[in-house]
Amino acid sequence: MAGSSSPSPPLATPGALLGPAVVFTRLYGTESMNRAVSGRRRVTRPSQFRGVIGFGVFLFLWEILPVAGFLPARYFPPFHEVVWALFLDFASPVFWHSVAYTAQAWFAGLVIAFVAAAAVGLVLGSVPVLWRYTESTIEFLRPIPSVALIPLAVLMFGIDIKSALLLIVYAAFWQILIQILYGVKDVDPVALDTARVYGLGRWSRIRHVSWPTALPYAITGFRLGASVALVLAVTAELVIGNPGIGHQVALAQSAMALPEMYSLVIAAGIMGVLVNVLARAIERKVLAWHPSVRADRQEAP
Amino acid sequence: MKTRKLIGPVAAALGLCLSLSVVGASHAASSTGSAMVANVGLLPNAETAAIRLGDKKGFFKEAGIDLKITDTSSGAAAITALIAGQFDIVFANTVSVMQGRDKGLPLVIVDAASTSTGVSGKDFSALVVSSKNTMKSAKELSGKTIASNTVKNIGEVTARISVQKAGGDGGSVKVVEMPFSNMEQALEEGQIDAAWMVEPFHTTAVQHGLRDIASNYVDTAPHLTAAAFVSTDGIIKKKGDLIKRFRTAMAKTAEYANAHPAEIRELIPTFTKITPAIANAFVIPRYDAEVNVASLEAMLPEMQRLEMISKTFKVGSVIYK
Amino acid sequence: MKTFWPRLLATTLVPVALFVLWYVASSDSGNFFFPPLAKILAAFDKVWINAGGFGDIAISLWRLAIGFLASLIFSLVVGVVLGLSKSARDYTEPVFEFFRAIPPTVMIPVLLVVSGIGDASKIAVISFGCLWPMLLNTIEGVRSIDPVLKDTCRVYRIHGLRRLFSLTLPAAAPQIVTGMRTGLSIAIILMVISEMFASRNGMGFMIIQFQRTFSIPEMWSGILLLGLIGVLLSLLMRVVELWVLGWYERSRVR
Questions:
Q1: What percent of chain A lies above the pLDDT cut of 70?
Q2: Which residues form the domain of C226?
Q3: A86 with A263: CB under 8 angstroms?
Q4: Which stretch, A165-179, A252-266, B62-76, C10-24, has highest mean pLDDT?
Q5: Residue-level pLDDT at B9
Q6: Measuring CA to CA, which of A83, A240, B226, C64 is 20 to 30 A from B17?
Q7: Subunits in contact with chain A (3 or more CB pairs closer than 8 Å)
Q8: Within this chain, do residues B136 and B209 fall inside the same structural domain, yes or no?
Q9: Do B76 and C112 touch (CB under 8 A)?
Q10: What is the largest CA-CA distance in chain C?
């Protein structure tokens, strides 16, 4: 890590042991949670076991090929070197500061995007006139790649967290908004009419009819937005230099510290897996009471 | 049922508050005590060793400045952050500063940061070729490919000038961009013909058998001011006292740093990834505080030819008065 | 025809109004980072339409196309195979899910080391990034084909390639297309970012150069350009979608 001379940490710090354990249980978790949410029964033992074998084969190849010379060890350090670098990371405060920074940017950006998208989506979805006039604008703005805003973010905010937030919020906002719009469109018109007949004002109708219907879509949007937010957070750090995981990867690369670079890539992957797991867990929690009405409308698994 | 429905909005509100506090909390620190706080952005490289040494030795405290150093990733990024108000003073290379001023940014050089040693073959910047390369002088680089860590910046400008001064055609050189750490490999594999390197990459490469073919800073001008400490018109107006104190401290720092290279070498591994072994072997720059205006003017013709700067630019506009 | 003019108005009113608002509001802008729209448009014309900026656009899109298509073909081939074989899936899915979770831009420094500074590493980055959503969606699409359809094929003795093209691919098409859409947006992001490092040409390179040299109107023109390209590619994707799924819809047994 930048600035520190080579430490000699204890061979197995608690964090280091936790790492692989987390990876494996979370991977199981993703699979079985996937199935639980979509309503199929829990996965049986053999396929989980096979998954472990598959992973094991991959790691084995990673270790053997560079050592045996089939892959140039200059570019592909063998797995044990990367694991050692990962252990060192888990013992390093700089590493955890970077992770915390990335997590902070991710969380803040995601929440702001979600609240904004929910507000805009509910309003646009419930007021047909507005939607008719803004649909084309949204369809135009949506595909603009958030990375196009990088130079602007740099100029406006430098390496302050706001530059990362600009990118994260912009990207996640559209993902979530589209899903919420689907959701609000899906509202049963009979239910809305009934609500109107009973004297519920527009705001009440939104709260009691539109929002619960849109909620599953909103949560799907949240899940998609969560992974987009992480990608943009890390990207911002890589390109702009905000002090998170992405920046550490860039530093490792520019110092040609390859085992460390790969270990940070793995760490980023673990963060990605955790984000997925977290999002799916929230999905299950929030939708536990909601009948799964929305089977075929998902964007991507 | 009621509580479940509330969870959503409450969580959203809490989350929103947390997020906004993250956004709000990122403002710079304010003054403490009678010392004025100076927010300084520095690259973590050997050229900023002097100011850090000066800070360690207490020259800044003596002058009444509380120095708050933050790492930046490049000169351009530092300048951007300066304009955005995140810093009072930043370290940046002089070419970027001149370009910025030319484009309308109110940049002012308050002090020089690093200056070329002026000794060919013993400078902290050089054009390096691979061990297998048989070229004898920069003249033979006409039409060839040189790597620089950023294109259209001080490396490219001075490299082209080097080739021109050696008798070759500076304009025919092709410059590609790549990180310093990739250059040695690219040279050995023949992907590029020469590379502009600064310390510590330069000495590391030489130790691995590569060799210098030109000292591009030396060829450009005697004692080229390569990098400087930059501020803005606005900051100078508002915090003129801070800038004066900074200059006082830097003058002392420069003198001390130039006289005590051993302490500089000792300090370098503590804020960079450079090992003590390399730190003791490589060439350190001169840490003059005086800007060599003539050396900046020497770069202008090439910059104008490369369309990096307008013909009406005057170096005087960027110097502290 | 009666609804044409109202519809046209509804579609264009807000965008045009926003554009005009931007133009007017920024016309006397002194802010360095937000120059007048007029200046940006002038820069757009100068950089991209005239002075060879078109070459950079072409290079970027070429790299995008190759990376995307390579991953698409790989996903179709490997995805179908894996989708049909539960045991193969069991072995490989955890590893693939992990790779998919890695934010693709983080692979840029890795590929810089491995494949150098040329086109190869940029295409490799784009390929690697968009591979996972497309592959995993293809697998999912093939895996979840209606078993009744599969049985019908078996009863009618439709096997091999014919079955592949009459049943497997069409049935999985909607899910594959979903994967392509995600893959395309990742590919665009990677196309731009990969050109911001160790590059000599391309849209990302140009934009980052403008930012580094503080050429702000030109930088904004690049942002506008990227927006346009994003929209155009998304429209292209829509067309492909309609073509693929339309064919699917028409050939479905009702």
A1: 81
A2: 38-251
A3: yes
A4: A165-179
A5: 64
A6: A240
A7: B, C
A8: yes
A9: no
A10: 75
Same domain, A124 and A237: yes
- Residue A190 and residue A154 share a domain: yes
Q: Are residues A102 and A229 in the same domain?
A: yes
Q: Which of A:165-204 have CB within 8 Å of C? A: none
Residues A178 and A282 in one domain: yes
Per-residue pLDDT reduced to its tens digit, B123-156: 889 999 998 888 888 888 888 999 998 888 899 9
Residue B52: domain span: 36-116+223-293+300-309
Tally the domains of chain B: 2
Task: Confirm if C196 and A239 have CB atoms less than 8 A apart.
Answer: yes
Q: Assess whether pLDDT exceeds 90 at residue C145.
A: no
Residues B240 and B212 in one domain: no
Phi, psi of B21 (to 5 degrees): -70, -35
Cβ contacts of A105 on chain B, cutoff 8 Å? 22
DSSP letters for A31-72: HHHHHHHTTPPPPPHHHHHHHHHHHHHHHHHHHHHHHHTSS-
Q: pTM to 2 decimals? A: 0.80
Nearest to A183 by CA among A217, A212, A221: A217
Q: State the DSSP H helix or E strand holding residue B175, giving kind and residue range, or none if neither.
A: strand B174-177
Contact assignment for C200 to B176 by CB distance below 8 Å: yes
Please give the structure tokens belonging to residue A188. 């049963």
CATH number for the domain harbouring residue C141: 1.10.3720.10
Does pLDDT of A71 surpass 80? no
Q: How far is C212 from chain B (nearest CA, A)?
A: 6
Write down which residue in A24, A52, A84 finishes a domain: A84
CA A117 to chain centre: 17
pLDDT tens profile A106-116: 999 999 999 99
Q: What mean pLDDT, rounded, does chain C reach?
A: 85
- B211 and B137 belong to one structural domain: yes
Q: Final residue of a domain: which of A20, A50, A84?
A: A84
Q: Note whether A168 and A77 are same-domain residues.
A: no
The residue type of B139 is K
Question: Which residues span the domain enclosing A67?
Answer: 11-84
Q: Are B72 and B40 in contact (CB under 8 A)?
A: no
How high is the pLDDT of residue B199?
83
Residue C19: inside a domain, yes or no? no
- The whole-number average pLDDT for the span C76-82 is 90
Residue with tokens 């947006």: C185
Q: Residue A180 is encoded by which pair of tokens?
A: 């919420």
State the Cα–Cα distance between residues B119 and B124, nearest whole angstrom.
Answer: 10
pLDDT value of residue A7: 38
Q: Measure the CA–CA gap between A263 and C131, rounded to whole angstroms.
A: 22
Q: Which of C211, C212, C214 sits opposite B105 (nearest CB)?
A: C214
* pLDDT 10s digits, C154-170: 888 877 778 788 788 88
A 10 A CB-CB count for A154 gives 25
- Best mutation target, C214, C216, C219, C220, to test chain B (most B CBs within 10 A): C214
What ipTM score was computed for the predicted complex, to two decimals? 0.82
Q: Are residues A116 and A73 in the same domain?
A: no
